[in-house]
Design a protein that fits this description.
The complex is a heterodimer of chains A (174) and B (175). By secondary structure, chain A is mostly helical. Chain A starts with a helix and ends in a 12-residue tail after the last helix. Chain A is built from six helices and no strands. Chain B is mostly helical and 175 residues long. Chain B contains five helices and no strands. Classes of the chains: A mainly alpha (174), B mainly alpha (175). The interface between A and B is large, with 45 and 50 residues.
Chain lengths: 174, 175
């Protein structure tokens, strides 16, 4: 694999494992309840990661998949909610499925030499007519940082729920 | 190396550096104006404090770019009276916020100096002292990506600390 893409996918996977790991063992009621004054629940954040981050940026922007292009009208914060009738297990398994689809899309479009220098396949001009991330590399870095930051939010939420932490993990133990 | 491969590598280095700098600025923006008592007050059961987390981030910059990439092991005045790094101990630091911010900024500047003279494809000269001796970053690229990820993740912790301290959110503008 392209060495740069390989590193990106490895880091994305590590942070996705972090998200799953820090939520492991939480009861449904704790996954659903707001923990902080700003009012979001852990599952709402996972929906945001699934749709607004993974699906939007990786399949929508980098790969330009037409079947997810409707997200470009919705914006990047439209999915901070759990759809009616969707269980905690379904939210978490949908996140896993989306990760698999996103990785497959990345390998399909970005696993060639200099692929990360290219413009992303699509851009949501409806949301940002003037601003854009110039290449695939910038989009991947945006996703790595957004995902890592939200994993940090979940760490703190978990600690506030039952004291469990994700500290002390070694970044190069895979 | 072909001219195109060289220009890809330079573009990659510029972009990584831009994102890393942006995350560092986000961290500093989140703690800017935080009440001094709140710097030293744990907000979660494990006991980490914003002061400890920022000191930890300074230590992480130093470890990854100076110890691991360059293989150095400098002693700094900062180390006097500071406990050895323990990844399982809560991050705390009883020093004044201004001193911690200065330490962090200094380590970031040193990291940038290392990055200015090191190719992303270079193999680190030092070792990372993790739980398994074989788990090492293969190239400098992996170190920079790790530092971006680690800074972003801790900025998420600091977001929550700030919200719990005085209700402010979204202080760290990000790309």
């Amino acid at each position: 694999m392209n060495k740069e893409l390989e590193a990106f996918i490895d880091y994305l996977d590590a942070e996705r494992d972090h998200v799953h790991g820090i939520l492991e063992g939480l009861a449904d009621k704790d996954l659903h309840r707001p923990v902080l004054p700003s009012g979001w629940s852990c599952l709402e954040l996972v929906r945001h990661l699934t749709v607004d981050v993974e699906r939007f940026w990786l399949r929508g922007v980098i790969a330009g998949e037409s079947e997810v292009a409707d997200l470009f009208q919705a914006g990047t914060t439209a999915h901070w909610h759990v759809p009616d009738g969707m269980s905690a297990d379904e939210v978490l398994s949908d996140y896993r499925s989306e990760i698999a689809r996103a990785n497959a899309a990345l390998v399909a479009v970005a696993d060639t030499e200099h692929a990360l220098d290219r413009k992303p396949a699509a851009w949501p001009v409806e949301i940002w007519p003037d601003w854009r991330l110039p290449d695939v590399r910038n989009v991947l870095l945006h996703v790595v940082t957004e995902l890592s930051c939200h994993a940090g939010h979940l760490d703190a939420a978990r600690e506030l729920i039952d004291g469990k932490t994700w500290f002390g993990r070694d970044p190069f133990s895979r | 190396m072909t001219a195109t491969a060289e220009s890809t590598l330079q573009e990659e280095a510029r972009t990584l550096r831009r994102f890393l700098d942006h995350q560092r600025r986000a961290v500093l923006a989140i703690v800017e104006g935080l009440d001094e008592q709140a710097w030293h007050r744990p907000i979660v059961p494990s006991g980490w404090t914003p002061a400890g987390l920022l000191a930890h981030l300074g230590g992480a910059e130093r470890h990854w770019f100076q110890d691991v990439v360059l293989g150095l092991d400098d002693v700094l005045p900062w180390d006097d009276g500071r406990p050895d790094y323990d990844p399982h101990a809560a991050f705390t630091c009883d020093r004044p916020p201004a001193e911690i911010v200065a330490y962090y900024r200094e380590q970031c500047a040193r990291s940038n100096a290392v990055l200015d003279m090191t190719a992303l494809t270079a193999v680190p000269l030092g070792r990372h002292n993790g739980p398994d001796e074989d788990d090492q970053p293969p190239t400098v690229r992996w170190v920079v990506l790790h530092m971006i990820e680690e800074t972003a993740c801790h900025s998420g912790h600091l977001d929550i600390a700030r919200e719990m301290a005085d209700g402010q959110t979204n202080l760290g503008a990000r790309i």
